[in-house]
Amino acid sequence: MAATGAPTTYSPSPVNRKQQSIFKDVDWVRPDGRGFHQCRPAFLKTGAVNSASGSAYAEFGNTKVIVSIFGPRESQKAMMYSDTGRLNCNVSYTTFSSTIRGQGADNKEYSSMLHKALEGAIILESFPKTTVDVFALVLESGGSDLPVIISCASLALADAGIMMYDLVTSVSVSCLGSNLVIDPITEEESCQDGSFLIATMPSRNEVTQLTISGDWATPKIHEAMELCLNACSKLGELTRSCLTESASEE
Amino acid sequence: MVGLSSGEKHFLQGGIAQDLRSDGRKRLTYRPISVETGVIPQANGSARVRIGATDVIASVKAELGKPNPLQPSKGKVSIYVDCSPTAAPIFQGRGGEELSAELSVALQRSLLGGKSGAGAGIDLSALIVVEGKICWDLYIDGLVLSSDGNLLDVLGAAIKAALSNTGIPKVNVNAATSPEDSAEVDISDEEFLKFDTSGVPVIVTLTKIGRHYIADATSEEESQMSSAISCSINKHGHICGLTKRGSAGLDPSVILDMISVSKHVSEQLMIELDSKISAAEACEDES
């Protein structure tokens, strides 16, 4: 991340919601005053839930997510024998997470995307016959929810001591007119022409999940990919330092 | 799930490495495609597409509805896929639901474009009847009859064929006398409007097995995949949607290479599909 936030949370006072003008003008400023290629300040912390085997809290601007990991524990009886572990992911939103109340408590699409982004990084062979549950709860939805959930979940998995090849970090880019905007907020996402989401394992330089929608020419994909990989590796460093910090505290 | 012995696996992978697959195809060749249009009389448009042993039906139904208040000048399109347990026993219960949901999301991502409508295969503003009041709701349903791999590409092709087969009834609007009154509409039984389907993308899935990627994988080949990338590409060669499947991570440069290869493959597929669709329509008109 371009800016490392001070380890304080943000005041919950409502953001001033101005009616946004058209984004496609030549020189427009992002609603929160960031540069086009600048990520929101990130705050990450492990150990948010005591009863879980591992948990993490992430705050990227107004997007606030809490992820807890349970397990590895015995798979349900009905499940067939499996010599590799199972990963069970669930993403839910609080009823007060967005401006309109109670939209989509359980997000199946995000749950399966989270599963796909993480399963490539976890060494499932290390816990046969058992299941690891990943529960993500979006406390406040402020745009780029899924990338934040993915990054936070990998931090929580590391906190739970689940064996992984590498941490997974994820960043999304919105295409607005001719500009690429990294780490978009809700206002920007609602009028984007295209979106590009990538989840990577930064130290291994591997992509675990990639989705693109909208209209993209090939040079733009290259540009977005480079932008995201760069941001992902910075986010990886941040996640790593958060883990070292929590380990040295103990 | 396909069970392969280690000998069969080895044979399959060795063949792919030598650019000669077990059914005699090259790595980037598709199986023979057959297209039939107008298979479901009750629908506004329908098509049955077979690629090899994979067999799907897509139907398009149009209903009059109210546009979303946030987007008063746009119609609505929803895409659902049903994987019937008649195709394979694993489609029963949750296994089928998960696959259906995954395919539906991938198709929506590929065909409906971004939030602002850029890159959408279907022009949503063409579905409007009275702005802010009446629009067409298109329900696109895909049904998997038989599955032998590469479902997403076949479903994409079937939807493309079904959309070009779709006739939307012409609507005559009797202007409302006062603004509170809802306008009266009169749906014509005889006159139909055809869709412009030139913007509908084709979907190309490249499956990575070992170090190589293959197009149009059979289910035997899919059981050996490490990961797959499905690109939907329109006639301008732009990417309208991309989905990665499979758990293994990929190097970014490999992904970019796969995108450029699938672009190349899509050009031929687009030409073949277009000619097959127009042949099917001509055949339907004759009968």
Spell out the blueprint of helices and strands:
The complex is a heterodimer of chains A (250) and B (287).
Chain A: E1 42-46, E2 54-60, E3 63-74, E4 86-93, H1 108-119, E5 130-140, H2 145-160, E6 169-176, E7 179-182, H3 186-189, E8 194-201, E9 206-216, H4 218-249
Parallel strand pairs in A: 4-5
Antiparallel strand pairs in A: 1-2, 2-3, 3-5, 6-7, 6-8, 8-9
Helix pairs in contact in A: 1-2, 2-4
Chain B: H1 6-17, E1 33-37, E2 45-51, E3 54-65, E4 76-83, H2 94-112, E5 128-130, E6 134-146, H3 151-164, E7 167-174, E8 184-194, E9 202-209, E10 212-215, H4 219-222, E11 227-233, E12 239-245, H5 252-286
Helix pairs in contact in B: 2-3
Keywords (chain B): Cytoplasm, Exosome
Family (chain B): Belongs to the RNase PH family.
Main location (chain B): cytoplasm
3D architecture notes:
The complex is a heterodimer of chains A (250) and B (287). Chain A has helices spanning 108-119, 145-160, 186-189, 218-249; strands spanning 42-46, 54-60, 63-74, 86-93, 130-140, 169-176, 179-182, 194-201, 206-216. In chain A, α1 (108-119) crosses α2 (145-160) and α2 runs parallel beside α4 (218-249). By secondary structure, chain A is α+β, with helices and mostly antiparallel strands. In chain A, 26% of the residues lie in helices and 30% in strands. In chain A, the strands form 2 sheets. Chain A has a 5-stranded mixed sheet. In chain A, strands 7-6-8-9 form a 4-stranded antiparallel sheet, with helices on both faces. Chain B has 287 residues and is an alpha+beta fold. The mean pLDDT of chain B is 84. Chain B has helices at 6-17, 94-112, 151-164, 219-222, 252-286; strands at residues 33-37, 45-51, 54-65, 76-83, 128-130, 134-146, 167-174, 184-194, 202-209, 212-215, 227-233, 239-245. In chain B, α2 crosses α3. Chain B is elongated and about 70 Å long. In chain B, a hairpin with a 5-residue loop joins β11 (227-233) and β12. The longest helix of chain B is centred in the last third of the chain and has 35 residues, at 252-286. Chain B has 5 helices and 12 strands. In chain B, the strands form 3 sheets. In chain B, strands 1, 2, 3, 4, 5 and 6 form a 6-stranded mixed sheet that branches. At the A-B interface, α1, β8, β9 and α4 of A face α2, β12 and α5 of B. β9 (206-216) of chain A pairs antiparallel with β12 of chain B.
